Structure formats: structure tokens, C-alpha cells
Amino acid sequence: MSAAETPSKVSPFARAVSDAGVLAWRSLKRIPRTPDMLIYATIQPIMFVLLFAYVFGNAIPIPGFPGARAYREFLMSGIFAQTMAFAVASASVGLADDMSKGLIDRFRSLPMARSGVIAGRVIGDVVFNAFVMLVMVICGFIVGWRWHNGFGNALAAFAILLLFAFAMLWVGALIGLSVGGPEVAASAGLIWLFPLTFLSNAFVPTPNLPSGLQPVAEWNPISSIVAACRHLFGNPSPFASPDGFPAQHPVWLSLIWCTVIIGVFAPLAVNKYRRATGH
């Protein structure tokens, strides 16, 4: 078989996977060259853990679970989910930066799969966020957080968190390809996440919220991820509606939300890339 014939034998799916792997490796190789990015990415979640654990730990009661230790165990799943959600910013800024520097134009001149270009960025960021999550786990153990349902359930919780990061990174990819530059992408990637995060069960139990906000908070996608992790970790997880679907099936709801987000935003991001590059 000649070299010219080889590409035609490669399926589009295999080609996309190969391209995504190459670009994911490129994304990871930049981390040792920019250690300040690694430092700041890990400092923020550590600051949130320490701030909420020691400043608000005695001020926010957990219904049915008295004491500061209960709040720290309640808190950690919220911090995990918030950090994975904020992965949106890394994808949006990174892709916007690549667009502004003309790197995407170079990719356009190569025989690369459209989905592979964006998927490579997303996969690289998921691996990076797995490292950030490891740092947070260590910090959580230091402040008194523990899981109580076995190592297997804990691994399932971490898998859900990484799946959520994967889903949110596709949202960030679409934002990064839609805005004019990395500065705009940084704001556009985060400004809508703050109300979504704080109008959830991440930091405050939903029974403590005003009655009109309780259903909104309990069906919030971030709340579903947090509730699933608390369920799997065996941490306190009070609900305003304990008989509702979010309370009874938190793991299934979290998987449904992740599937919906990926199913909507991954095709939109790939299509946006195609239109932005004329690919």
C-alpha cells in the first residue's frame, strides 16, 4: 500500500480521534511552560475551600447535621462542582486566543478533522482539571472532609465531576469561538456562571433558601452534580423537597444534565468552528 493510499483507508472517526489526541497533547505540553497558570488554577479552589470552611462553617447550618464538620463535608462537593464548571473559562479563553493569533487558520490549512481541533482542547483541559481536583481532594482532607461510602463510590463521584467538566468545556469552546478576543471570552465565560453556581445547593442547603427559589435551585444542573457527589461520598445532602426527583435520583439527573449539555453544545461548537474558519 502506498503512502498516498493510506489516508483513504482511515475512517473519519479514527482520524478525528487521532487529531484530538495530538492536539490534547499539545494543550498539555504548554502547562510546564506556563507554571503561573497551574499555580493560579489551583490557588482559587483552595481559597474557596478555606474561606467557606473556616469563615462560613459555623454560620450556615445544615438541617439535620449540626456542627462545623458537617458543613465542611457538605461544602466539598459544591467546591468540586464549582471548579469543574469554571473550566468554561479555560476553554473559552484558550480558543479565543488561538483564533486571535491565527493558529486556527493554520489548522484550517491542514487535513484535520473539525471536531478533532476542539475536542483536543477539551480533552487536554479535562486532564488538567483532573489534576486540579486532586489538589482539592488533598485540601479537603486537611480541613476535615471525608467520604463514607467506599472508594468505588468515591471514584464514581469523581468520574461524574470530570464528565461535568467535559460538558462545560464544550460550552466554553462555543463561547471562545463566538467572541472577539480572549479578554471578552474571559468575561463571557464566567459572568453567567456566578448566579448559576450561587443559586444552587453548592454552598447553602436548599431548605435555607426562600421558598420561591428552592425548586429552581434543586433542578439547577450544578445542584444535580453536587447532590450526586454528596450521595456517592455519603456526605450531608438536605433537600427542600426530599420526595422530588432531584432528591431521589441525583446520580441519574446529573448524567441526564451532562448528556444534554454535551449533546447541545458539542455540535454547536463544531459547527461554529466550521463557519468561523470556512472549513
UniProtKB/TrEMBL annotation:
Where on the tree of life does the source sit, at the highest rank? Bacteria
**Swiss-Prot/TrEMBL keywords:** Antibiotic resistance, Cell membrane, Membrane, Transmembrane, Transmembrane helix, Transport
Please report the record's description of how this protein sits within the membrane: Multi-pass membrane protein
Protein family per UniProt:
Belongs to the ABC-2 integral membrane protein family.
Source organism of the structure: Kribbella sancticallisti
PROSITE patterns to which the protein is assigned, alphabetical: ABC_TM2 (PS51012)
Could you identify this protein by its name? Transport permease protein
Residue span, ABC transmembrane type-2 domain: 36-276
Which InterPro entries does the entry link to? Answer: ABC2_TM (IPR013525), ABC2_TM_bact-type (IPR047817), ABC_2_transport (IPR000412), Nod_factor_ABC_transporter (IPR051784)
Q: Where in the cell is it found?
A: Cell membrane; Membrane
Answer whether the UniProt record assigns the keyword Flavoprotein to this protein: no
Membrane spanning residue stretches = 38-62, 74-96, 117-143, 155-177, 184-204, 251-270
Q: Name one Pfam family in it.
A: ABC2_membrane
Q: Which PANTHER family does the UniProt entry name for this protein?
A: NODULATION PROTEIN J
